[in-house]
Amino acid sequence: MTRALLLIDIQNGFCPGGNLPVAGGDQVVPVANALMHSGRYDLIVASQDWHPANHGSFASQHPGAKPFDLGELSGKPQVLWPDHCVQGTPDAEFHPGLDLSAIAHVQKKGENPAVDSYSAFRDNDRAALTGLVGYLKNKGVTALDIMGLATDYCVRFSALDAVDMLPGVQVRLIEDGSRGIDPDGVHAAIEEMRSAGVAVVSSKDILAA
Ligand code: VGL
Ligand code: ZN
Fold it and tell me: pLDDT by residue (tens digit) across 78-113?
């Protein structure tokens, strides 16, 4: 068994004070640190939303649009976001409380201005891979625990892709290590992940096991 922990987008932009804040987003930081220090993982990786300033998911790039409007990007429906996690800005940095020392690999995503990338594994149009599937396969990962921000977007799409793209790997969502943007969306996302074969667990169970 090679157990990996995948920390999704624990960045200033998604925490209180950031440009696309998730309620309680900073509360996942101590959960991540405790799990990283628990000795229960063979490998720890993190994703980082990393957009150019002109990213097409930003409402600012669509004349007349407001953040959270439903718009279009490259001909597909797209939620239009506030400008967030722009490359090289403090908003894109990991939360300062997150202990980066145990993270072996950071997977940046969302660099192509013409497509959004909620999943740490591939763009939303499924055309381009980030390289994380290859990295985890190369390390022989057999179990993958996923947590972070936001439950109803990047955590959700990453977990669904993990099930789809890493056959044979046991995928789990750490529910208390994740926070979402929309409460109804979070509930639906958790049911969707469960139906796809993602086990839903608590960090307390992992730490007690
Ligand atoms: C995310 C919206 C836009 C996320 C990233 O990390 O969940 N959500 N970009
Ligand atoms: Zn983004």
Answer: 999 999 999 999 999 999 999 999 999 999 999 999
Rounded to an integer, what distance in angstroms lies between the CA atom of residue 131 and that of residue 107? 8
Residue 109 CA to residue 142 CA, distance in Å, equals 23
Q: What angle do CA 124, 126, 127 make, to 5 degrees?
A: 120
pTM (two decimals): 0.98
Q: How many whole angstroms from 118 Cα to the centroid of ligand 1?
A: 6
Q: Within 13 Å and on the Cβ side, how many CA atoms surround 162? A: 31
Whether 154 lines ligand 1, by a CB cut-off of 6 Å, is yes
* Rounded Cα distance, 167 and 175, in Å: 22
Between CA 51 and CA 135 the distance in angstroms is 22
Measured in Å, residue 20 CA sits from the centre of ligand 1 at 8
**Radius of gyration of the chain from Cα atoms?**
16
> What is the rounded end-to-end Cα distance, in angstroms, of the chain?
15
Task: Spell out the domains of the chain, with CATH numbers in brackets.
Answer: 3-49+94-208 (3.40.50.850)
Tokens of 191: 């049911």
The answer to whether the beta carbons of residues 34 and 203 sit under 8 Å apart is yes
